[in-house]
Amino acid sequence: MIKLSKDSVETNLGVFVDKLFSHPEVKCIKIKELEISGDNKNKTIISAVNKIYHDAYSNINWSIEKIYQFWFVQIQALGKLYRNDFLISSHLANSNINETFVQQMVLRDLKYHTNHHQYGDKEDLIYLKYTGQCPY
To answer: What's the rounded Cα separation, in Å, for the pair 53 and 76?
Structure first.
């Protein structure tokens, strides 16, 4: 089981941001509408963590086996893609897309305290919020 604390998220985000800024082409990083530049890096990282830490994904303890399985399939899909095996690569990527839908359903069930979906729900799907936007 992985348990993330606010301090560990802040530390790891700082390490990740430092690695990104080590590339000369990276001048600015945007996290949750907060722009991080070399000048305001530490202060903005703290603000970004404060802003994102209490979202739905931060309060869930995901099984480490599920996380390993997800990334194993991603790496296999990339390997197949690099070898021009588009059919298997697409199949593996699709299986992970399906897994993310399952995880979204689990989050919805936890939010509404149900696992019975007789009438469905009319909430906005998370992935549709980012349609047409670059995630990086």
So the answer is: 31
CA 57 to chain centre: 8
The two tokens of residue 101 are: 């839908």
- The dihedrals phi and psi of 80, each to the nearest 5 degrees, come to -65, -40
First to last CA, the chain: 27
pLDDT (mean) for 52-71: 70
* Alpha-carbon separation of residue 28 from 25, 35, 89, 92 (angstroms): 9, 7, 33, 33
Give this prediction's pTM.
0.45
Q: What's the rounded Cα separation, in Å, for the pair 129 and 18?
A: 28
Within 10 angstroms of residue 68's Cβ, the number of other Cβ atoms is 10
Q: pLDDT by residue (tens digit) across 73-101?
A: 999 999 999 999 999 999 999 998 998 88
Spatial contact of 96 and 78, defined as CB atoms under 8 Å apart: no
